[in-house]
Amino acid sequence: MRTPRVAIIGAGQSGVGMGARLRRAGIDTFRIYEMRAGIGGTWHANAYPGLFCDVPSRSYQYKFAPNPDWSRLFSPGPEIRAYIEQVARDHDLPRNISFDTEVETVTWRDTEWEVRTTTGDTEAFDFVITAAGALVRTRTPAIEGLESFAGRRFHSAEWEQDAELAGKRVAVIGTGSTGMQLTRAIGPIASKFELFQRTPQWVLPLINIPYGPVAKRIMRRFPFANQFAYRFWQRVTEGTFGVAVIKAGWQRRLIAALCRAHLHVIRDPDLRRRMTPDYLPGCKRLVMGGGFYQQFRRSTVSLVDTPIDRIEPRGIVTADGVLHEQDVIVMATGFSTNRYVLPVEFVGLGGTRLTDRWNPQPEAYRTVAVPGFPNVFMLIGPHSPFGNQSLFTISETQADFAMGWIEGWQRGEFDTVAPTEAATEAFNRDLRDALPGTIWTTGCDSWYIGADGLPAMWPWPPDRHAEMLAQPELGHWSMERVNGHEQRQRAEHVEGRS
Ligand code: NAP
To answer: CA-CA to 109 of 20 to 30 Å: which in 20, 175, 191, 255?
Structure first.
């Protein structure tokens, strides 16, 4: 058996899952590059007050590490981060992680990948796994005068933990999932709270029940109960949301009815009208959670839907000339999406650059690999079903698929493997044909939409992703022997023994 050298880019939930997968297969020769100082990826970066996950805890976890201790049906952010850190520790991953280390370039050098970090260090690998997340680079709109604001100002994913909020005048710009969660958390404590809305969002009410000591004991005592709960919540969410986004039917009608009924929590008819979207629920990413609309019953909490004109030292000036004075402005304005592992510069066979290949829009073979980039596998890559499925489920499916190839390499079946152009083109043609039937194309602007005008999403039932990656279709892959590969391996083996 050959020993593969594997680079993983990112120590978030997918990178940790991949590292654990390698460790369980007895492979220790891997390095995880992490640009932040800690583990958790999005759950490390996002540390804003009131952060919750709106996917049920029992299916937002690794299948191989069921957690009996979730405190609620929907977990608070810090609990998810602690869980991912614990799984990393349980698999002894920290010793394989280079923290505060950003990968700059990944270049194919005849027989292997050379990974170069921003500090100039290089290391060679046989496989590269990208696990860099989908919502990473923050997006701050270029509002005139933004820099001149005299108070505290930061993006929701770059939270300044020492910022005082209690008794302060706070503005949140943006009404996505983050803006909603911030409103619930800061609305009750600020002396004045204003939510700046450009586009109203549909909000699906959720009740976040706590799990008591009995539930935790049962889960600890009977691990199969946790596995059963995983399957149960997976079926519930994929059978409703996962289907509603791809086709019309009772699931779509039910979600729409719940969102519309929820609006009646808003007592003031004028405010209700201003907060009612003019597109279908689910076209933009659904905002989910209870207790949001209720915040606007407080005399200190208000919605500002007059467009922002500019920002000046004392606060935000709207198009009607009104100055909204603030102590703190939070940009809950989302992320630059459809970038995946970019801006890492990948240079593949024949000098092909991933940035060029992905212009205007990233595409992959069945979400996991790109022709011309041998032995590179992507977790949460282009068109992954993140609109229809838990990210843990997706990345575990992809990690298992990558692992299958790594094991084939260990057995010496090939030196390099990459999907063919023909298979990749056929997959993306089918994908493009199916996308217009989905909810994301029904007339709204959202971060799902790519530069080609199509949603960068998965247009089929979530199960189909796992089916497509259950076994590689060998005719879709090009496996090669590389001159010099065996000699290098043998030399390293001898060196390692001497
Ligand atoms: P987002 O959904 O992209 O929302 C950004 C918000 O900022 C939108 O309301 C947008 O308005 C607004 N905005 C952008 N530029 C603006 C400008 N110049 N002036 C005024 N408003 C502006 O970002 P997010 O809320 O951070 O959420 C991103 C994604 O993260 C979510 O869709 C979800 O997938 C994930 N998330 C998940 C959870 C969870 O519980 N699982 C929690 C938080 C986030 P427009 O709508 O008009 O563009």
So the answer is: 20
Mutate which of 206, 285, 310, 390 for ligand 1 pocket (most atoms within 8 A of beta carbon): 285
Structural domain tally of the chain?
2
Range of 156's domain? 146-202+248-331
Nearest CA to ligand 1 atom 46: 199
Q: What is the distance in A from the centroid of ligand 1 to the CA of 172? A: 11
Whether residue 220 is contained in a domain is answered as no
State the CATH number of the domain containing residue 181.
3.50.50.60
Residue that terminates a domain, selected from 314, 331, 348: 331
pTM of the model: 0.95
Ligand 1 atom closest to Cα of residue 177: 25
CB 459 within 8 Å of CB 435: yes
Same domain, 125 and 274: no
Same domain, 326 and 388: no
Q: Give per-10-residue mean pLDDT for the chain (498 aa).
A: 97 98 98 98 97 97 97 98 98 98 97 96 98 94 97 98 97 98 98 98 96 96 94 96 96 98 98 98 97 98 98 98 98 93 94 96 97 98 94 98 98 97 98 96 94 94 96 96 68 50
Residues 107 and 175 in one domain: no
